[in-house]
Design brief:
single chain; alpha+beta; 3-stranded antiparallel β-sheet; 2 helices; 3 strands; 44% strand
C-alpha cells in the first residue's frame, strides 16, 4: 500500500503572435497504481523569460519556437508598450 506523489508535464501549448509558451504541470497522487487525485498548475512563459529552471521538454519547445525574429519583435512590442 504505497502512496506516491509525482509531478508531470501535462500540456505544453504555444499561443499568439509572440509565441508565448503555456505549461500545465500535473501533481498526481497514486496509491497501488490507482490515481487518487490530480491537481493542475499553469504558468506562461514570454519570449524574454529565463528558462534554465524549466523542465527539459519545456526548454526544447521554447528553444524551437523562440527564434531571434520572435525575440526581437517581442522586445520591440514591450518597448512600444512602455512608451505609451
Amino acid at each position: 500500500m504505497a502512496i506516491t506523489k509525482e509531478t508531470q508535464i501535462g500540456k505544453i501549448e504555444v499561443v499568439g503572435k509572440h509565441k508565448f509558451v503555456q505549461v500545465r504541470t500535473d501533481t498526481v497522487v497514486i496509491e497501488d497504481n490507482e490515481e487518487l487525485s490530480r491537481k493542475y498548475h499553469r504558468h506562461t512563459l514570454a519570449p524574454d523569460a529565463v528558462i534554465t529552471d524549466e523542465h527539459s521538454e519545456v526548454q526544447a519547445v521554447c528553444n524551437a519556437v523562440w527564434t531571434q525574429d520572435i525575440k526581437d519583435d517581442y522586445a520591440t512590442f514591450k518597448a512600444n508598450q512602455a512608451n505609451n
